[in-house]
Amino acid sequence: MRSFLKSARLRALWAVLPLSMLQAGVAGAAPAADNGAAQILGKTDVDSTQYFENEATPAPGSPNIVYIVLDDVGFSDLGSFGSEIRTPNMDSLAQGGLRYNNFHTRAICSPTRAALLTGRNSHTVGVGTVASMNNGFPNGQHRITPAAASIAEVLQQSGYRTFAVGKWHLNPIMVNSSRSHWPLGRGFDQFYGFLDGMTDQYTPDLVRDNTLVPHRFEPGYHLSEDLLDKAIDYVATQTAVAPERPFFLYLAFGAGHAPHQVAESYIEKYIPVFAKGWDKTRADRLARQKQLGIAPADAKLTPSDPNVKPWASLSPKEREVFTRFQATYAGMLEHTDDQIGRLIAFLKKSNRFDNTIFVLLSDNGGSVEGRLEGTLNELQTLTVRSESVDEMAARMDEFGGPKTSQNYPTGWAQASNTPFRFYKTTVWDGGTRTPFIIHWGKGIKQAGKVRDQFIDAVDVTPTMLKLAGLSMPESYKGIAQIPMAGRSFDGTFNDPKAPAPRATQYFELRGQRAIWHDGWRAVAEHERGTPYEQDKWHLFNMRTDFSGSEDVAAKHPELLADLQSRWWAEAGKYGVLPLMGAPITDGFMLPNDPRRQYKTARFKTERDQRPVYVYYPEGPIFMRQEGPVLSGASYTMSVDLNGMQGGEEGAMLASGDQFGGYSFFVKDSRLSFVFNDLGTITSVSAPDVSLAGVRQVSYRFDRTSNQGGTGRLFVDGRQVASANITSADTLLTSLSGFEIGRDAGGHPDDSYADRGYFAFPEGRIDKVTVKIEPLPSRTP
After folding, report:
1. Per-residue pLDDT tens digits for 686-704
2. What pLDDT, on a 0 to 100 scale, did the predictor assign at position 729?
3. 733, 656 in Cβ contact below 8 A?
4. Residue 161: what are its φ and ψ, rounded to 5°?
5. Quick one: what percent of the chain has pLDDT higher than 70?
6. Helix crossing, 460-467 with 109-118: angle to 10°?
């Protein structure tokens, strides 16, 4: 025993001694590897010198930095940018800071966030489109390359405390994927939020640090409030423990992305406000922008989208429904503003407000995902389905609540982006120009002013690093770093005539192209599937035409040709090529789906089918991408059981929520399988089933058409029920997770809505096997 202890002690000592010490001998001297100072290690502490590693410390007075990122909020949606929507807290940041009316994004969420956090162009860092899709080329690897350190990584290495709260959407959306691209792998000390592009505000899919959090079923819960609770908790803890140490907070709301969900008290006040319709709202906002100095006096509205009906031409019922859609969005944005006010109040209370730099922006313009008439189920926008106005009118008392996953009609998106043309997912100004506010009590002296210099998302992080007295390293964790494309615009803080940080910026999204150069903007009108050489280019003089309302391409053909050449040069420089014009919906379809527009170039998601999936109840909560892919297939779900006594009930496997998904469960001695096909619920059920001694229950689905097939239930191989099941031939049927032995997400129907997680008795499920059969020939 003594020999073993002696050996163990030596092994422990050996494990902690530095390599240089081991090479020199126990009694020898070894230099400290991290500071170069000679450290003496003698036989005892008396004849040894101590060394304590010092953590990196930012320079005294370094500012705190807060990025507040709104989602799908258009240029005119804040009060300080011309809106009727009440946003007093965001407006207070504008009044005490600066508004920029010429700020640009990438027209869609992931690329904007990648550019914002790294100071590089999104294609350069591998995020040319939404991060949940991989196009197989360097410009679309659905995560930020390690060769582009984020601002969080630089600040963390320099001694800042770094927190990310809210939406991430910068990594493969798989729980079992590498955590290296999750927030904690990209420089954040703590993270609380969601990884996907959207989530339900009442039952969100949440992650804390690197672990999925079970859904919450709490009356009155709202995600935006929860996010602020956590953000304040992080900052308050850090302030109490180390008040002298600055922090970086990345606060990315789900609002105002769909689903638009908020309490009715926020909605009702906006019904009379927006009863005037989207045309009058658009005109009123431009007039207000001129009064505020956001737009010059000669600014014009761009032509209305011809697909959007004039408000006066709508029926009374359409006006009533569409008004409530916008009132819900407005209420959600006001609710978000209330949460920002809580953060401002805490920072003032803790004396950290004046030396905190606030950067507030939206990732892109107003969204057209709700299509022309709006939707109460956002997932339907990825299919050919839509609800009728009559159907939506019958559910108006549900607007904003947990039974809807809604998004407003296109006409309101157009008003959101006043005075610009078009929307999110386009490289026109309606997609790329958003509100931008910066506030720094200690450093900005010309409070309340408007700046008109061209600023881009890539310019934000270089500016913040400069103000923190830092720079992007040439190498980070042994990896050579791509130089930042952005430049600091801090010179504009107190000098309205300071030059813009850069003269040129390209734009590209799914084959759409544009370029801004020295006050001119050229936009290519690309039709999918046609040669890019056939694109029609438009040209706008942004010095004299604030909104881009007059196309002057015919007047300046040589200038337009120069801008086209510059676009190709920028594309080659920043890794934009090859161009890939596939629409986002192609990424949600299987390779042989006849509806796919591009047969050779396709996105790869984590959702490709495989023949067999096996799950165990001991496993974690799974995200939706880790459940079986049922699209267009026949399949069998088998649950192997142990020690069944009879009378057991609960969900054996479940995926999704009330907006799409399925559940295989037992309740009141009834074995059931429910399929929710984007709101259309069908089921097969066997009453009075005794499970005593049963070893396996199964559900078998035989697809007979693109619209569905026959579902059958089996108990130990014996068929006990069958029914027709509606199951559209679509890959994406829900945004909530997949689970074995319980249903902790929003339930696919109301069969057990009062049962919480509705967990199956522990130890009764051995495993679940899902077998997918080859895709049948598709029928109309």
Report:
1. 998 999 999 999 999 999 9
2. 63
3. yes
4. -90, 135
5. 88
6. 30
Q: How far apart are CA 107 and CA 109, in angstroms?
A: 7
Tell me what pLDDT residue 132 has.
75
Alpha helices in 518-654 (DSSP H): 557-573
- Give the Cα separation of 207 and 223 in Å (integer): 12
Report how far residue 515's alpha carbon sits from residue 457's, in angstroms, rounded to the nearest whole number: 15
Structure tokens at 639: 């649950």
List CB contacts of 10: < 8 A, sequence separation 6 or more: none
Which of 772, 61, 100 has the alpha carbon at shortest distance from 449? 100
The predicted structure's pLDDT at residue 774: 65
* 571 and 563 Cβ atoms separated by less than 8 Å: no
Instruction: State residue 319's pLDDT score.
Output: 98
Confidence at residue 10, expressed as pLDDT on a 0 to 100 scale: 36
Asked if 148 and 482 touch (Cβ cutoff 8 Å), the reply is: yes
- 10 Å CB burial of residue 131 (0-12, 13-18, 19+) is buried
Separation between Cα atoms, residue 577 and residue 508, nearest integer Å: 10
CA distance 84 to 81: 10
> What pLDDT shows up at residue 622?
76
Q: What is the pLDDT of residue 620?
A: 61
Q: In a 3-state reduction of DSSP, which class is residue 384?
A: coil
CB 299: neighbour CB atoms within 10 A?
17
Q: Which two tokens stand for residue 637?
A: 């779900």
Residues of the chain short of pLDDT 50, as ranges, are 1-33, 36, 585-601, 777-780
Helix, strand, coil % in the chain, rounded to nearest 5: 25, 25, 50
Of the candidates 444, 488, 258, 456, the one whose C-alpha atom is nearest the C-alpha of residue 366 is 258
Q: Output the pLDDT for position 505.
A: 98
Task: Return the ∠ at Cα 501 (arms to 302 and 169), rounded to 5°.
Answer: 70
**Predicted local distance difference test score (pLDDT) of residue 185:** 96
- Tokens 């002696």 appear where? 6
Environment class of 463 (CB within 10 Å of its CB; exposed 0-12, middle 13-18, buried 19+): buried
Domains contained in the chain, CATH given: 2-40 (no CATH), 64-495 (3.40.720.10), 507-573 (3.30.1120.10), 612-772 (2.60.120.200)
CA dist 493 and 268 (Å) reads 39
Q: What is the pLDDT of residues 419-462, one digit of tens each?
A: 999 999 999 999 999 999 999 999 999 999 999 999 999 999 99
Rounded Cα distance between 7 and 1, Å, is 10
Q: Which DSSP string corresponds to 640-695?
A: EE-S--S---EEEEEEEETTEEEEEEEETTEEEEEEEETTEEEEEEE-S---TT--
pLDDT at position 14: 34
Q: CA angle, 270 as apex, 264 and 271 as ends, to 5°?
A: 90
pLDDT digits (tens, 9 = 90+) for 605-640: 555 678 999 999 886 677 767 788 888 889 999 999
Q: Report pLDDT for 739.
A: 87
Whole-angstrom Cα distance, residue 270 to residue 634? 47
Encoded tokens for 755? 């049962």
